[in-house]
Amino acid sequence: MLSLFRDSENQHILTLVLGCLMMGSMGIFANMIVQTHPTNVVFLRFFFCVISLPLIALITYPLFRRATREKLTETISFFRNHKKLWTIVGTAMALVVALYTLGAILLSVGLSVILLYTAAIWFPLAEKLACRYLFSDLRPTHFSRAYYLSVILNLTGLLIIILGTSQVPEFGSVPSLVGLAAALGASIAFSFSMVLIRVMKSRGIKTDQMIVASSSIGSLIMLPALFIFPIQYSMENMSYAFGMGFIATALGGLIYFKGFGSVRTTLAPILSYLEPIFGFGLGILILSEQFNTTLLAGMAIILASNIGYTLYDIKRSRKLLSELD
């Protein structure tokens, strides 16, 4: 029975689910850090991710020597041979991570993780700009009417969430407004990162390299915050910061990409939506986040429209492959 489980796809599915859970826990760790300015929480996430990556390599090397060497070679090769792309990828993804973390702290974990998936709204524009000004060899995607329908639904859900947020008593305070703006900014930056994923794949670069590039650049960008804003170096705070950088970012990201690349392409995109579901659920269970009916409706529309389009796209891809056969 054990050998059957190891040889089956179930192991890869559990890997992807575990990665989604670990990444979805980021907002919980971030909100547990006290008496520390939000920008320094962002720095701590980048910093502990950076120091976690070589730690993970040291742990895995005795067990998976070949795979670890290959991963290190890929990382060095990406930096040496594609410096411009490495910088663009690292900066864009660092912006996603920073803004998403700020949204989770200042607004809500559940809202921030769901709003991240409104990136579909901005993706066509982000791709056109990238094709025109950065990557002339990248061919624009031909979007179907179904995609634009999902964009309309995402935009509707976004507007409903903004309406629902305005009904919350604490809305209107500077932190809540900054948090909402950060969550929306993370969504826009994530749409550009999705374009960069296309570019990386076209050049044979694995997408998990985004973790290394973004954490390295993010740490450098956010370093001045240490000397400007308050931070408390308590054992409890550093433990949560380590969990945020190690569990929710470095290890969680690597496990997520490993699972996503191993599960069949018709299932992996659907399972990836467990990340916002886990983030939303953990926010309610651990942080006691509460949402009014309007907010829940908006989040449901965004999540349902994205899952619906993903299912449609998978079905269409199957049909095209069968026609080619």
TrEMBL record:
SUPFAM superfamilies: Multidrug resistance efflux transporter EmrE. It comes from the Bacteria. The keyword Transmembrane applies. The keyword Membrane applies. The chain crosses the membrane at residues 12-30, 42-64, 85-108, 114-135, 147-165, 177-199, 211-233, 239-257, 269-288, 294-312. One of its GO terms (cellular component) is membrane. This is EamA family transporter. InterPro entries: EamA_dom, EmrE-like. Keywords: Membrane, Transmembrane, Transmembrane helix. Residues 179-305 form the EamA domain.
